[in-house]
Every structure is written in structure tokens, then in C-alpha cells.
Amino acid sequence: MRNYTQAENTYPFSQGSIFSFPDRGRWGNARYRGNCSGHVYKRIFEYLRPRVFTDPMVGSGTSVEVAREMGIESYGLDLHSGFNILEHSILETVGKPSDLVLSHPPYHNIVVYSGSVWGRNPHPADLSRCATEEEFLEKLQVALRNQRAATVLGGFYGLIIGDIRRSGRYFSFQAPIISRMPQGELRAVLIKEQHHMESNRTEYARLKLPRITHEYVVLWQKEADTAP
Q: Cα(first)–Cα(last) distance of the chain, in Å?
């Protein structure tokens, strides 16, 4: 992975912290619920230039398709294929540390995966099956620490996450998860505009406030070999 310095004046996010890609691209499966635009991954790869990339919640495979097209050594893991991020080591499964470990977890239970999108039965390690927001955050923290442990020193780890509104209550997950991770390692919070959402086809009679049309890309850079 290339190191960026102030002297080079090439800090990778100088082009701006807001992403908007109405076209999701040719990568992955557009019918897979919660699928992220491949252009988002392409932009992040262009910024960070990882040699080795791992997605431990790969879903339909969009991220690894983009990475491999760009010549990046990549690994895709997921609960639906037998990898349990709450119990299995990413590092041991892949067999080497990665320059970038980026996940796109469920947004709590907005889209329920095991027993619905895939499989016949609910899986106890499925983050979309968490009973409460606190349980979701606790398990997400475990997942991120697993990602951090799988990241090479100086490499990046992070996630794509969105806010949710339910029964008039608003939940923003990016702020509390940032507070649970090493404060000195936070490097960027990018805003990603959402397009073609299921909720846009639904009318909410009591909704007085704007619809949620954004997500976040949160990135940390690993500074120490020992976990905080």
C-alpha cells in the first residue's frame, strides 16, 4: 500500500468526502437486497490502492468483483458461505493480513438476511437478527475488531453503514460505533448518497422529516499491533 504524506499533497480524499453514484455498475447481483454500488468500492480502491483486500461480509460479491477487475488480490467471506465473523478469525481464514478490510454489514434489521435473503433458517450470528440496537452495536464492534486484527500495520479497515428510522425514532449507528473503536485511528467519515431504495416506493403518511438518503463510509488506519 502506498503511503501518503502532506509533502506530496496527495492525501487520498482531496477530491471530496461525498459520493453519489446513481448507476450501481455491472458488478455483483443487483437483486441482492442491500447491495452497494460497485463504483463506491472502485473509488475507495483508487484512493487507498490496496494490494490485498478482504470483505468479510461480501454478500453478492460486488466488492471482490471490482477489486479483481482492478488487479487487487481479494478475498470475500460471508455468513451465508460458512464464515462467522463473530467467532472465526478473518486473518486465519485468509492466511495473510490485508491492506484494506472493508465490510458492508446489515443496518440492524432493516433487511433480514438469514432465513429470508439466503438460507431456510435464522442464524444466531446474523447481525440482521439482533433483537435490539445495543446488541447490534456490540456484535458490530466484535466484527470490526476482527477486521482490525486482520489488517496490516498501517493498513485500513472500515465499514459502510446507514442510519434507520423506525416508528418515528431515529438511529444513527456510525457515531456510536466510532466511539467504540480506537479514537486515534479514525481517518475518514465519507457520505454516500443512496439511490433506488425500496423505501422510495412507499408513502409514509406521518413522515414530516426528509427521508434518509445517505450512508457513511467509515475508515480507520491501524497504528499498533496490539489491540486497544
A: 23
